[in-house]
Amino acid sequence: MKLPGHDAIARQADEHLVTHRVKLPRKVVERPIRQVVKRLVMALAVLVATALIVYADHEGYNDNSDGAVDLLDSFYYATVTLSTTGYGDITPVSDGARLTNIFLITPLRVLFLIILVGTTLEVLTERTREEWRLNRWRSVLRDHTVVVGFGTKGRSAIQTVCATGLKKEQVVVVDPSSKAIDAAAAEGFAGVIGDATRSDVLKRAEVHKARQIIIAPQRDDTAVLVTLTARQLNRGAKIVAAVREEENAPLLRQSGADAVITSSGAAGRLLGLSVLSPAAGMVMEDLIQQGSGLDLVERPVVRGEVGKTPRETDDLVVSVLRGHRVLGYDDPSVGTLQLTDRLITIVRATPGNQVTPDTRPLPHG
What is the CA radius of gyration of the chain? Predict the structure, then answer.
């Protein structure tokens, strides 16, 4: 029996098996003409240095023509030596012939070598450079953020965490689409092409060294599998996942997600709030958009706030995180603030506002 969509699933699986590779954001390179000019200048510098070295010890050289080696002879010797020309039965004797050999024959010979060998050398050099960048990237990557899925949800999540001060170098995107990874690399993020439900793909994203993992695929069943795999590879990371249907949220929590966001439910609640009060809907939209207007910020309690109530702080406190509990600002059990508490506050967005990372798992509701 053939299930609906079997062909599409099979094609997608074949695409996933093609390659699982890491793509780092490309650095800005110089224009080809400038690169060629720089290489020619370097080659000329080597030629001059070689000629000067020969001329400094010209008494140790012999010219079959007149026995003496002058400055011109030194440049000629350096030219035929560096170009691997060697010596044959026909050699230039007159100064005019040697000048022609230096300024015409040798540049043509170098141009020929560039055309013949340059492409191969460039490919080998590029591969070596890319491999070196990849190894260095893996060795220095620590406490980063892995984002599974570079769709609308994934992009918005990245924009939010980067607005709070996270550097682009600390974000790794995982997506089965090469076009999505190309788009991520164009924006400055490292990317891994492959199916995130596979542990080898997540390992390429160094998920075992990540501090936080954002899971935002297109399908809920994919989100569950990715969450299970990611939690198995990294027991201490903070995992936040998105699902479309509310009924799948408990399954994701059981799979190891610290927090689950129901995209359809959240959108529906925002729609309902906007119907009741368009202004309230605008304020809520502003709060969840980091970097502009009003921001929701989590921060630790400073020593000057210890012993005060949430209302007595300078910021507008919404909730207090105490241990694994999230308490409202007016909850009687809060009492006064403790040094180990963390506060959820509403502040005016400024470049200095950043969410202070909390390594503890998020409390389950």
Answer: 32
Give CA–CA dist 296/286, Å, rounded: 9
Cβ 215 vs Cβ 223: under 8 Å: yes
pLDDT at 193 over 70: yes
Does the pTM surpass 0.85? The reply is no
Query: Closest Cα partner for 247 from 233, 232, 259, 265?
Result: 265
Question: What's 246-298 look like in SS3?
Answer: HHHHHHHHHHCCCEEEEHHHHHHHHHHHHHHCHHHHHHHHHHCCCCCCEEEEE
Q: Which whole number is the average pLDDT over 308-336?
A: 88
Q: With 0-12 CB in 10 A as exposed, 13-18 as middle and 19+ as buried, what is 145? A: buried
Residue 237, pLDDT score = 92
Q: Which residue has the higher pLDDT, 150 or 282?
A: 150
Alpha helices in 141-236 (DSSP H): 152-163, 178-186, 199-204, 220-233
The tokens describing 185, both together, are 């690399």
Q: Exposed (0-12), middle (13-18) or buried (19+): which is 345, by Cβ within 10 Å?
A: buried
Distance CA 120, CA 234 (A): 42
Residue listed under structure tokens 């984002």: 147
* Rounded Cα–Cα distance for residues 356 and 316 (Å): 17
The CA distance from 171 to 220, in Å, is: 23
User: Which tokens hold the place of 24?
Assistant: 């780092």
CB–CB of 256/228 below 8 Å?
Answer: yes
How far apart (Å, rounded) are the C-alpha atoms in residues 166 and 169?
Answer: 8
Question: Among 63-72, 158-167, 180-189, 257-266, which range has the highest average pLDDT?
Answer: 180-189
Residue 71 near residue 55 (C-beta atoms within 8 A): yes
Amino acid at 326: V
Query: What whole-number distance in Å separates Cα of residue 210 and Cα of residue 232?
Result: 13
Q: Distance between alpha carbon 69 and the CA centroid of its chain, in Å?
A: 57
Taking the C-alpha atoms of residue 9 and residue 13, their distance in angstroms, rounded to an integer, is: 6
CA 350 to chain centre: 25
C-alpha to C-alpha distance for 247 and 95, rounded to whole angstroms: 90
**Digit-coded pLDDT (tens) for 132-146:** 778 888 888 899 999
Please tell me the distance from the alpha carbon of residue 110 to that of residue 104, in angstroms, as a whole number. 10
